[in-house]
Amino acid sequence: MTTKTLILHATENDHRTSLKEAAAIIRRGGLVAFPTETVYGLGADALNAKAVQAIFEAKGRPADNPLIVHVASKQQCSELARNIPEKAFALMDEFWSGPLTLILDRTEIVPDVTTGGLDTVALRMPDNEIALGLIRASGKPLAAPSANLSGKPSPTNARHVIEDLSGRIDAVIDGGSVKVGLESTVVDMTPAVPAILRPGEISREDIEKVIGAVIIGYEDKIHPESTVVRSPGMKYTHYAPDAAVTLIEGEHEMVISRIQELLGNSPSRQVRIGLLLTDESNKMIRHADQLALGSKDRPGEIALNLFSGLRYMDSKGVDLILVDGSFSHLGIGAAVSNRIRKAAGTIIKV
Ligand code: AMP
Ligand code: MG
C-alpha cells in the first residue's frame, strides 16, 4: 500500500484549518497521526471496523493487541463503556485530561477489531488541544495506538512518525514535540481491586491516593514464560531499536565504572557501541557516540528523551547501546525503567 502522506501543521492554539482537513479524513475512514501529551498516536474512527483494521495493517501490529480509544469528554465514555465503577469516575475526575487509560466493560457499538476481541475497552482523554480538537471536529472517538511501526520505539515528534509510516497513512499533524515522552499508565478497572497493566507518568502512588490499593499487573523482569499476560500489548517486544540494548543498573559511580570497563573490553571497531547516559555520567565519560538524556535526579527528562535517544543511536548505526540506569526510579522513573527493560536483551546490576 502506498498513499501520499499529507503533512499538516498545527499548534495547541492554532489548529483550525489543519483539523478540518484531518477530521474529513477520519470521517471517510482514513488514518491520521496526531500529537498527544504522551507520544504521537495513529488515529482512526474507533467505531469503523474497516478503518481500525487499516491501523493494524499500517503498523504491522498483531491483531490481538487492542487499541486505546481516545475521547474528548467523560460523557463520551457512556456510549463506549458500561458498568463504569465509582473508582473509575474518581480517577477520571482527578487525572483527565491526562496520561491515564482505563480498561472498562465495553458496549456493543465498539467493534471487535478495536478491542482485539476482548469484552473490555481501553479509554483515555488526552491532554493536548490538537488531539481533543480532532476528536471533536471528527465527531468520533479515535482508536489510536502509538504511531510507530510495530516493535519500534514510540514516536515523540512528527519526524519519527514520517520515518516509520510515510506512504502508509493518509496524514500526520505536526504539532511539535510531546510533553511526557512515554505512553499512558493503563489501569484495569474491571476487577474489585484495580490492576496497573502498564506504568506511566501517573504513578501507583498517585492512583492509590485517589482510590486506595491497586495491584501491579505487569511484569518488570524479563521472564516471559512465567508471566500471565493481562495487557496483551505488554507481551510483545516493544520500544526496541535495531541495535542490541544493555541496561546497567545500580549506584551512579558503579554504573560509570562498568560502562568504562565494557568500552575498554569491547573488541574495538568490530562492535560499535553507543551510550545513552544521564547528564551526570555524560560529564565523566568520553566516547564517540554518546547522548545525555537528562539528570539522574529528574527522570521526567529521561522519559522525554528516551525514545528519540534510541532512534538516534539507530541512525548512527551502532551495534550495541549501553543505557545508564542510575536514574531515580521514583515517580515516572519506574515507567522509564520498565520501558528500557523491555527494550533490553541484557540487564546488568552493579
Ligand atoms: P499503544 O496504543 O501502542 O500504547 O498500546 C495500547 C496498550 O493498551 C497495549 O499495551 C494494550 O495491550 C493495552 N490495552 C488496550 N486495550 C486493552 C484492553 N481492553 N485490555 C487490556 N489492555 C488493553
Ligand atoms: Mg505502542
Structural class: alpha/beta
The ordered string of helix (H) and strand (E) elements is EHEEHEHEHEHEHEHEEEHEEHEHEHEHE
Percent strand: 15-25%
By CATH's scheme, which homologous superfamily of the largest domain applies?
DHBP synthase
CATH architecture of the largest domain: Alpha-Beta Complex
Rg:
20 Å
Assembly type = single chain
- Overall outline: globular
Find the count of extended strands (DSSP E, 2+ residues): 17
CATH class categorisation of the largest domain? Alpha Beta
Task: Profile the largest sheet.
Answer: 12 strands, mixed
CATH fold call of the largest domain: DHBP synthase
Which whole number gives the mean pLDDT?
Answer: 93
N-C termini distance: 48 Å
The figure for the number of domains is 2
Q: Which spans have pLDDT < 50 for at least 5 consecutive residues?
A: 222-230
Helical residue percent? Answer: 25-40%
Small-molecule components bound: adenosine monophosphate, magnesium ion
Give me the number of helical elements. Answer: 12
